[in-house]
Amino acid sequence: MSEANASTRESLLAEFKAARESAIAKSQIDVGQITERHRAERAEALKAFAEKRDELIAGWKKNSIPEAAFPSILAIEQAKHMEPVVARQAQEQNASLAVEGVPTWDGFLTEKSKAGESLADELLAELDARKAKGEDVSKENGIEGEPLDPGKLKASMFDGIKYEYDKDADSVHYSRTSDGTELFEDKGSRIEMKETSAQTIETALLLAQERFKKGTPLTITGDEEFKKEAARIAGKLGIPIKNKDLLEIWQQARDKAAMGISDEEPDIAPRNGFSGEEAKPDLRKNGPAPEQDVPGPADGNGSAGEGKKGKARSASSREPASSKKTLFKLLDHGSAPYQFKEGESQSYFVKTQDNTGKEHIIWGVDLQRAMEDSGATKGDLVTIKNQGKEEVVVKVVDEHRQEQWKPTHRNRFDVTVADMPLKAAPHMLEAAGKAGYVHDAATGRVTIPAEDYLAAKAELSGLSGSGHFALHQVNQMPFADLQPTEKHALVSAGLADENGLNRRGIATALTSDRLLEMNRARTPDNLKGTAVQPGHEKAATRQAERQEKAPETAKAQEVAQEQDQKRILVRNEDQQAQEKKAGSKKRKAKERQIEDRRIERPARNRQPKIDRGQELSR
């Protein structure tokens, strides 16, 4: 096998994972059904322990054990009660897989060895040497004792442990019965280790799992050697931890446990990221940094499986492609010393987060080019693919501090921005629906295709200040309610016409709102009040204020209506009074006219008659 095509530990691991998952998928085993049954069995076991809880407490009271110690010893008794159930379920699952022909790590390496794989020979030799020497596994990444045979359980790790309550310190001391060695101390919110063998650490972790709030990550403190060992054992047990710098170790152990690789087998973590011979220790700080592949599934349920920094894997042995792409949220990217360790050579990293909230860091020089080509920015949803290895020549410094150019292989990556679900106010949801975008009123999001989203980001980079302001306004209120100058800014930028936003304008407006939201998230807490609030939030705030003030507004409208009615009634009464008064005056005037006529007629009738005879004689 040529050096260019030689396998690495990480590529063998990836190939084994793919083969195992494929075998499980093809088998007749209903993994979900087994998991559900195991969950029900654990629930029954916990219920059974709860039923004997009062009996235990009564016994402790009879033996004068202080009640302050009860929470701790109840937790360890519960862990002891659950131990055989969990062990039996693990045996049952492994036995079921074996029956269906699912490969084991040992068997996989044996087949590879038969095919002429030299690295498989090396790993098998390490495994045989470790078993032959019978080395103290408490000093290695392992657990004391022989592997369990189906149907055979080892003695409980809780056997031979005694406890003593310290009233002054309000803590419980746990020690080994045989020699009195103190193992650990339960201080309530912290378990302090006194002895750090693998079995003691596992016992303390199982206590912590029952002692503290279920499902909350543990924080491991202390020296580096202990923290790494504790992280490895926590990963094997599936107990979550908070320490970001230990997540790689945790995930590697989790992967081994998920794939049925025992702790006694050779370490499968990558030594470096190159195919072929491993770099010498004195070259690691000056030579090219190892590269890593993208995070992948750790188990059959599709959850992301690499740790924060992940294990490197060759492109030829990645997991089979899924019909549904795994999307990661881009948290950060840039150039830094490899694994952020001082003195290491510069490499490029991409930090992402999967849909479970787990963070991943991928290293690779080619990632810088891939990121620039993608147009992705922090907060975007992306897919990252390792396209395979390409031959390159790099400069390294040898043991004589002389620079040399050596051929090697570099991972080539492809980073693609995915369709973006962006938050939107109700009026924007309606507009997006009319424009043909997929939208969901329940979540308040519009899904913008990747090409439209990238085009919108490019649009925003060259938009005028008035255009940005108009977009901010249109995210808060319908286009029809904008000021004429705001409408003009959007129309002149080609984002709208006289009737409203076009498809391009909708994508640009929602993208602009998202960038405002991201900018506020990056703003220091003491300055968040000065950050511009995204338009969809302002729209929601206004709607909430209207709803909150609705009763007051309704009451005010009711009062106003009553006052209007009163004013109308008074006005009508005044008008009626005026009309009545005017009618009265008119009537009186008419009566006076009639009276005047009556007086005038008699007067006219009383005038003297003229004697015509007298008049003629005169």
TrEMBL record:
InterPro entries: LPD7. Residues 313-323 have a biased composition (Low complexity). It holds the Pfam family LPD7. The lineage of its organism: Bacteria, Pseudomonadati, Pseudomonadota, Acidithiobacillia, Acidithiobacillales. Residues 258-323, 517-618 are annotated as: Disordered. Residues 535-552, 563-582, 591-618 have a biased composition (Basic and acidic residues). Residues 160-254 form the Large polyvalent protein-associated domain. This is Large polyvalent protein-associated domain-containing protein. It comes from Acidithiobacillus ferrooxidans.
